[in-house]
């Protein structure tokens, strides 16, 4: 998901989360220890986070030390991995989602591996079942979020649908990410295409553009700088009360508030959501295949799956995993998210992004 959602955790320093600095080099160019049989190297987008005790437990049981190489937003990370295909900077890649999956698979990025515990993952998430080039790890929904206080203060009903966002009442209120470089931005574009069809989404974006939508490069800038409803956005002087983010943003804003509110200050426009599934895979040419396979097993283990929601703010895919109570207390369930088949995405993604760019990024 980029989910660059690890930025939510900036207010939670000291809570025992393993991020890049705790795991090894901050360089995205790899390093000699990528080939060390005692080291398994994970390549990820910037949202990777896991509790220290959980990763230490994996290291103790497996005998491998984990090194993390973060490579930017999900779209950027996938593109970099493709450029280094066959000679990867790591062993496992985490962070390719269903919006970019076909690009990674068509470029032969991964080696097949059926992870232990995959029987706990429902078929609806196993988009490469049979070939097993990727392992589903988490799921969630890309949705427009809104600043509850702004709409209450202005006595304005928050938008609920794609159509609402183009209405004059919401002019100059929405910020979204670039569909060419950001996975939430791409997911929002795909959601509009699922809503309006191949013949209608362009007209919709012309209306949205005329209504003052602001486009920025990635999630972190949109949510933590431009959005008035996030804690960091308030500090940065953000003045956009609508942002393309996730259905899991409300739990993040509430959980790390002090004191915790009864309800989250952030709401979700449930009619704007697009379902996202995130995967990991063993990189073709990995120097430590055995360690990479062990790490893929770990990613769908009950221990990791239950640790994940409060670290990366996504939903587990394993049936035997239960999300923490603090997470579910504030979570917004999306009953009917927009979806699109990987084949349809593969057939149209590049064309749609090019057209979107010509319409919006002039």
Helix fraction bin: 25-40%
Specify the overall morphology: globular
**Annotation field: number of helices:** 16
Distance between the termini: 26 Å
Helix/strand-derived category reads alpha/beta
Q: pLDDT below 50 for ≥5 consecutive residues: which ranges?
A: 11-35
- Computed Rg: 20 Å
DSSP strand content: 15-25%
Keyword list:
single chain; alpha/beta; 362 residues; ten-stranded mixed β-sheet; 36% helix; 16 helices; globular; two-stranded antiparallel ribbon
Q: How is this structure best described in words?
A:
The chain has helices at residues 20-23, 52-62, 74-83, 101-106, 148-153, 162-165, 183-196, 201-210, 219-226, 231-236, 249-255, 289-299, 302-307, 309-312, 325-330, 342-360, and strands at 17-18, 39-44, 50-51, 65-70, 92-97, 110-111, 135-147, 174-177, 214-216, 242-246, 266-283, 315-316. It has 362 residues and is α/β, with parallel strands linked by helices.
């Amino acid at each position: 998901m980029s989910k660059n959602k690890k930025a939510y955790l900036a207010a939670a320093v000291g809570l025992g989360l393993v991020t890049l600095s705790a795991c090894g080099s901050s360089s995205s160019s790899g390093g000699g220890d990528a080939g060390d049989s005692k080291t398994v190297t994970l390549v990820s987008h910037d949202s990777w986070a896991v509790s220290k005790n959980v990763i230490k437990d994996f290291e103790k049981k497996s005998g491998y030390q984990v090194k993390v190489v973060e490579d930017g937003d999900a779209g950027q990370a996938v593109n970099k991995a493709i450029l280094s295909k066959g000679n990867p900077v790591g062993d496992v890649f985490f962070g390719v989602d269903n919006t970019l999956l076909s690009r990674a698979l068509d470029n032969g990025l991964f080696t097949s591996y059926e992870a232990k515990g995959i029987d706990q993952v429902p078929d609806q998430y196993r988009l490469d079942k049979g070939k097993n080039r990727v392992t589903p790890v988490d799921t969630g929904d890309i949705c427009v979020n809104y600043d509850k206080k702004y709409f209450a203060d202005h006595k304005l009903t928050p938008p609920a649908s794609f159509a609402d966002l183009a209405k004059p009442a919401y002019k100059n209120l929405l910020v979204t990410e670039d569909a060419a470089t950001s996975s939430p931005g791409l997911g929002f574009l795909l959601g509009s295409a699922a809503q309006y069809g191949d013949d209608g989404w362009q007209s919709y974006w012309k209306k949205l553009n005329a209504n003052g939508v602001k486009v920025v490069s990635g999630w972190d800038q949109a949510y933590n700088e431009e959005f008035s409803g996030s804690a960091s956005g308030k500090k940065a002087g953000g003045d956009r009360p609508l942002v393309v983010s996730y259905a899991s943003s409300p739990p993040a804003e509430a959980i790390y508030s002090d004191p915790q509110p009864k309800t989250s200050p952030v709401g979700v426009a449930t009619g704007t959501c697009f379902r996202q599934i995130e995967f990991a895979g063993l990189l073709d040419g990995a120097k430590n295949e055995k360690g990479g396979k062990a790490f893929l097993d770990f990613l769908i283990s009950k221990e990791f799956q239950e640790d994940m929601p409060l670290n990366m703010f996504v939903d587990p895919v394993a049936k035997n995993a239960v999300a923490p109570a603090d997470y579910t207390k504030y979570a917004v369930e999306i009953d009917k998210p927009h979806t699109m088949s990987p084949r349809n995405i593969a057939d149209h993604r590049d064309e749609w992004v090019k057209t979107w760019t010509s319409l919006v990024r002039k």
